[in-house]
Amino acid sequence: MSEDHAGRMGAIHRELHSHLPPEPALRVKALESLLVEKGLLDPRTVDAWIEVYTEEIGPKRGAEVVARAWSDPAFKARLLEDAPSAIAELGFQGWASGHLNVVENTPAIHNLVVCTLCSCYPHALLGIPPNWYKTAAYRARAVRDPRGVIAEFGEVVPDEVEVRVWDSTAELRYLVMPARPPGTEGWDVARLAALVTRNAMIGTARDLAPRVGGR
Amino acid sequence: MDGIHDLGGRQGYGPIDVGEPPEPFHAAWEARLLGIVRAFTRPGAWSIDWFRHVRECIDPADYLTRPYYDQWLQTYAAMMVDSGAATVAELATGRSASALPGMPAPATPESVETAKKTFARFDRESTAAPTFAPGDAVRTNPLGAAGHTRLPQYARDKRGRIERFRGFHILPDSNMTGKGTAEPLYTVSFDATELWPEAGSRRDRVYLDLWESYLERA
After folding, report:
1. pLDDT > 60? residue A2
2. Which is it for the CA torsion A44, A45, A51, A56, positive or negative?
């Protein structure tokens, strides 16, 4: 593995930087028309994928999984043991989730997910990652100062709670199962799912207690 | 590779944009690029590890400043140039100067129904036994690797604990050509105090998924 890909590919990157159009939108337009001309792309398929990730696949799926786990101890056990099989029961199998793991928040443990080396994310359950998840700031800071990062999102993790940071360095993907908030006894899955936020399933939020007057 | 991409624990990075709007895409070109990436037929046998490594080779200033999906574009463009599927001039103009013979018809909108429900797996069957067991103390490789690797700098030469054996997974370091070999993969946890000088008495832990050749018994 000593071949110098970095030298060869770095040179190609610099050449592309010098010659491609100056704006991202123009670069994307040029790429699309080239791929169509080369017979590698049907623009209607691009439209279909955009619709999937705008309308269908997003954090609502993850929220449904969490709410079901809160409501059904047998499903929760299957989810923690073999998450890909459990989410397939709901038809949620898909991108970057074939080696999904669900990690559970408890009164003593808080989990936070990051990918320091790129931007790995369980797309099939959470959809398109927020931009902040992909930034250098989040990737640099989450492993080193998770409590500071969570505080920036507005919550303080008590000192006695152990923070576990999951750095997605392989093809395993992580989804945080937040704790079911008190005061939700008897709620159905749909009502519970409405409480579960994307950030809670990444771990940058912890407390999902319903607020008086809603939020 | 000791590249700019290896960001874990680097200091000096500023606040996180916690007020980001909730929509999945913040510009039309971002959605378009994501759709293209999901839809286009790869003109070469590109592994996920080759994609990641080519992205790692983006000029450091561009890596830190270009929007995320713009980096994906740059990465696919570089892979196309490297494999001979397109020239820089073609990518700059959007006009094809030569055909690519032997490619199948592009994916249809109907194909999305199946593709969106497909699990990709990166583990492989093996009858071999893993060397480590949960609870074992291990130390990570002190030197890293010159090419693509998934042992971050912050976790080199550190003492950790095996949490779980995850099966035999393709070793990214060996998979630039897509013909990588599988190795035992483990979830390994590290005390925050082993990693960060300022961690003090924090009981926090960091969990990484690491391949057997990154580890030795401690």
Report:
1. no
2. positive
